[in-house]
Amino acid sequence: MEKLEQLYEGKAKKVFKTDSPDVLIVSYKDDATAFNGEKKGLIVGKGAINNRMTNHIFKILEEKGVPTHYIQELNDRETAVKKVSIVPLEVIIRNYAAGSFSKRMGVEEGVKFKTPILEFSYKNDELGDPFINGYYAIAMNLATQEEIDKIATYAFKVNEVLIEYFDSLGIDLIDFKIEFGRYGSNIILADEISPDTCRLWDKQTHEKLDKDRFRRDLGNVEDAYKEVFKRLGIENK
Ligand code: TMP
């Protein structure tokens, strides 16, 4: 497969065309942003960690029946993926109160919910990814009812699989954001699952092992990414 011209550059990844019309190459950057790009920085080594972590997790999810865009890891930073049309929704699952939920609802970070919460944002940087619900998504033609139903089912399945997996690594999965794409008539998981897009807290110490260390200037940002990578056991694979 041949890598062709760059199609798009996002905040954390670049996307390239290939000589196959159904295949793209994503290339993960070390760049980090927060607050809709207002805060900018670099997390050295993040690109390679997020690439390899996402691929590792996507393979686990495929085995558990969640279809993903993953095709093949090409090198430390680059992966061949199925070309999808992204559904413009940020799909968030929360198991514990944190972040924008805590702010909005006045609930202390770390409080466990009785049941997981599914939440949608409209993926639109100009508007700052506003909070919406399924009715907005359908009314605004962002997705159909059938697509929303599939997305919700897959999102809860991803949560179930990841809670158990991270638990085995001594990590509590506080919340995460995923994105889905249209692939033919199917909906498949796309984008990434990494410390950029999850809140991951050490089970014992409750230390934050994710991008909140960057967002909130907590220090040891690179170490947190490396610690998660180490626990995944894929450093030398
Ligand atoms: P929030 O509490 O700030 O709404 O974030 C919920 C989860 O979504 C958290 O795990 C971080 C992740 N997230 C992203 O991946 N991208 C984003 O742009 C935002 C705001 C959050």
From TrEMBL:
InterPro entries reported for this sequence: SAICAR_synt/ADE2_N, SAICAR_synt_PurC, SAICAR_synth, SAICAR_synthetase, SAICAR_synthetase_CS
Entry-linked Pfam families: SAICAR_synt
Enzyme Commission identifier(s): 6.3.2.6
PROSITE patterns: SAICAR_SYNTHETASE_1 (PS01057), SAICAR_SYNTHETASE_2 (PS01058)
Keyword list, A-Z: ATP-binding, Ligase, Nucleotide-binding, Purine biosynthesis
Superkingdom per UniProt: Bacteria
Limits of the SAICAR synthetase/ADE2 N-terminal domain: 6-231
Family annotation (Gene3D superfamilies): ATP-grasp fold, B domain, Phosphorylase Kinase, domain 1
Catalytic activity: 5-amino-1-(5-phospho-D-ribosyl)imidazole-4-carboxylate + L-aspartate + ATP = (2S)-2-[5-amino-1-(5-phospho-beta-D-ribosyl)imidazole-4-carboxamido]succinate + ADP + phosphate + 2 H(+)
GO molecular function: ATP binding; phosphoribosylaminoimidazolesuccinocarboxamide synthase activity
Single GO biological process annotation from the record: cobalamin biosynthetic process
Annotated metabolic or biological route of this protein: Purine metabolism; IMP biosynthesis via de novo pathway; 5-amino-1-(5-phospho-D-ribosyl)imidazole-4-carboxamide from 5-amino-1-(5-phospho-D-ribosyl)imidazole-4-carboxylate: step 1/2
Listed PANTHER family: MULTIFUNCTIONAL PROTEIN ADE2, SI:DKEY-6E2.2
HAMAP family (UniProt xref): SAICAR_synth (MF_00137)
Family as reported in the entry's similarity comment: Belongs to the SAICAR synthetase family.
Alphabetized NCBIfam families for the sequence: purC (TIGR00081)
Protein name stated in the entry: Phosphoribosylaminoimidazole-succinocarboxamide synthase
